[in-house]
Amino acid sequence: MRVAITRAAPENARTAERVRARGAEPVLAPLLQIIPCGYDTNVADAQALVFTSTNGVHAFPAVRDAKHCVVLAVGDATAEAARQAGFGDVRSAGGDVAALAALAKAQLDPAGGKLIHVAGDHVAGDLSGELRAAGFNIERRLAYVARAVAVLPDAFATPLDLVLFHSPRAAQIFVDFGAPNAATLTAACLSPAVAAAAQSASWKRLIVSPAPREEALLGAALNA
Prior knowledge:
This protein is α/β, with parallel strands linked by helices. The protein folds into two domains: about 1-30 and about 150-220, 3-Layer(aba) Sandwich (Rossmann fold), CATH 3.40.50; about 35-145, Rossmann fold, CATH 3.40.50.10090. Helix content is about 30%, strand content about 25%. It has a six-stranded mixed beta sheet with strand order 3-8-7-4-5-6, sandwiched between helices. Strands 2-1-9-10-11 form a five-stranded parallel beta sheet. α6 (about 170-175) packs parallel to α7.
């Protein structure tokens, strides 16, 4: 089975290893390019840093100056990236933005200092709105831009069996390119939100991961 991986570098390499370990052939077909931005990394008055992607972790250079901060991560992969970067107190929501907001409300004090959300220019859900409604002061800092590729990757002109979508944005970009050969392909989506962006194309089959984690996605896609 040939599996197109649409997520951006460098995370697509990790996904490729996992696909290969399950006996399938990974094909890198990124639909987004991650471009770092210069931004304020001063977190002296923050009680916690919030990361909704591994890209945010990779774009945060001043770990040594943030040792006092709790780190809240949207999922296990983002949490692991934060630990590898050198953060000490890292807590995973194990899911999506709703789970992340619930984790913050359960474990942090609105009076304990502001939260800093290190993010890209596109964020799923309304994390800031939900936490502000709970009394938190949350500041979003733009650490990177996720830019759509200008041309569909050549991989989509080769024989494929399965396309992995990790974000609604990637699925929408593929649809905007006309979803070539979708009728012969299975789309595997990380969450219902991703599936909603992909479903306007006429797929051979559309699979939704039972949990918003990559291992669950690969299990559903490659063991189906």
